[in-house]
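re: the backbone from monday

yeah here it is again, tokenized this time
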């Protein structure tokens, strides 16, 4: 994808720390491009690597498509020295690190304020809420990480797309292990860092909640201690303790204790009061109030008056498989809430709480739950814990669990409290819905992405269409 940022030949050399292999023709300001499928003529090609590809293999193709020059990794050039024939070739040790270095250089020459967001859950929703609120005041002066661009490649690309008009850039930062958020923070150098919460997502990789808290607090590593601001979930004592240990700069917390009069209505958006302003929120649940409050705190830090923000989230929809309420076409008052983007013990419990508390008048509430991935040896413990917690809740008409991974959850639920079904796949889920809840029902879908529960609405739609034709 082509970057908005452009670089001179000398800047490419100095920032990358690379060596000139060949320099046969003049080179002025060029954009960086990493994908030959969409490569723009006149760009400078940077060969990223993935699980199933090596961008160095496409250097010759990039020149055929009109690239002005390219980076090449040293080990690859040693293996294929004939590539020295191409002009404007710079050899580097690691293309991904070069991409990050260029992104950091461009970030430094920009006047944009950078807000970085991480957390075990809620970071994407918080990013989108903050973007919505800031856009109300700053318009097109706000940019954000697109889609799920929260790893090294996504963060670098987002930084390289800062324009002269960008006033605030919102970066989402994800992780798969220790040191990854630190790497992102060091290159993004945030002005404000938000940590939504700490939970057992990725506990199978990191081994403990304490290790996860330490990893999330790596977001402070690239911040200026004198100028930077950390915004953390004050209702998470482990996070507060770890943040205070790792960050010596200004630290502010957000808490439900700051909120007055949370009110949920079947007819309109949720409302809550903060600092004398009534906020309207298009999503249910106290966790979404917390996500909104994290964004509000960032807006305050950026000098945005609360009076401009009260109605900015009234029609907010998370999108991307996050709490999407969808009617099943052709069915009689049958709805699906697609919240199947991902799941961990924190986000699953929050989703269920919101579902239970939401006033869906006249509808039976059915939760279809797949497994939670990346829990490792803790998988049985956390799945069973959700089932035990559900035994103490009221307001669900049924729970359906899918797959072997959810067996501890299924076994923990007392069927005298909640009717519970254990099934094997999405087709069985379709059959169960058609048999037991064909109308006047709302179905919550929640699982890790590997379960593909987002297929169920499409299966229901096709089944209804087939029924109408038969």
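seq for it, each position gets an aa:
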């Amino acid at each position: 994808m082509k970057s908005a940022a452009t670089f001179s030949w000398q800047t490419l050399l100095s920032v990358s720390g690379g060596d000139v292999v060949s320099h046969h023709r003049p080179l002025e300001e060029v954009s960086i491009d990493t994908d030959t499928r969409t490569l723009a003529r006149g760009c400078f090609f940077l060969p990223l690597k993935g699980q199933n590809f090596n961008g160095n293999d496409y250097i010759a193709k990039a020149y055929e498509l009109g690239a002005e020059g390219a980076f090449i990794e040293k080990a690859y050039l040693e293996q294929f020295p004939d590539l020295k024939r191409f002009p404007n070739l710079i050899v580097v040790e690691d293309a991904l690190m070069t991409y990050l270095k260029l992104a950091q250089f461009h970030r430094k020459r920009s006047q944009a304020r950078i807000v970085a967001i991480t957390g075990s859950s809620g970071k994407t929703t918080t990013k989108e809420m903050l973007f919505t609120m800031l856009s109300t005041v700053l318009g097109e002066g706000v940019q954000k990480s697109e889609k799920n661009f929260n790893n090294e490649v996504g963060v670098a690309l987002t930084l390289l797309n800062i324009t002269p008009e960008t006033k605030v850039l919102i970066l989402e930062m994800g992780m798969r292990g220790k040191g990854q958020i630190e790497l992102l923070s060091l290159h993004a150098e945030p002005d404000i860092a938000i940590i939504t919460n700490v939970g057992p997502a990725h506990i199978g990789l990191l081994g403990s909640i304490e290790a996860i808290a330490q990893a999330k607090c790596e977001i402070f590593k690239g911040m200026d201690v004198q100028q930077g601001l950390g915004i953390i979930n004050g209702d998470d004592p482990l996070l507060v303790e770890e943040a205070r240990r790792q960050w010596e700069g200004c630290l502010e917390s957000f808490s439900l204790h700051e909120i007055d009069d949370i009110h949920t209505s079947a007819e309109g958006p949720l409302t809550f009061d903060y600092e004398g302003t009534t906020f309207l929120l298009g999503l249910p649940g106290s966790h979404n109030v917390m996500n909104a409050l994290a964004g509000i705190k960032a807006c305050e830090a950026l000098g945005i008056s609360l009076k401009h923000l009260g109605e900015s989230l009234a029609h907010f929809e998370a999108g991307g498989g996050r709490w999407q309420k969808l009617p099943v076409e052709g069915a009689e008052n049958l709805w699906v809430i697609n919240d199947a983007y991902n799941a961990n013990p924190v986000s699953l419990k929050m989703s269920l709480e919101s579902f239970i508390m939401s006033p869906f008048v006249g509808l039976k509430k059915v939760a279809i739950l797949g497994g939670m991935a990346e829990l490792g040896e803790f998988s049985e413990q956390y799945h069973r814990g959700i089932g035990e917690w559900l035994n103490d809740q009221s307001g669900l008409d049924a729970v359906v669990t899918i797959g072997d991974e959810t067996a501890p959850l299924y076994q923990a639920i007392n069927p005298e409290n909640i009717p519970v079904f254990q099934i094997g796949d999405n087709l069985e889920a379709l059959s169960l819905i058609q048999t037991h809840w064909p109308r006047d029902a709302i179905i919550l879908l929640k699982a890790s992405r590997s379960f593909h529960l987002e297929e169920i609405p499409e299966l229901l739609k096709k089944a209804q269409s087939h029924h109408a034709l038969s």
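The domain at 324-469 is CATH 3.90.190.20 (Protein-Tyrosine Phosphatase; Chain A). The chain has a mean pLDDT of 94.
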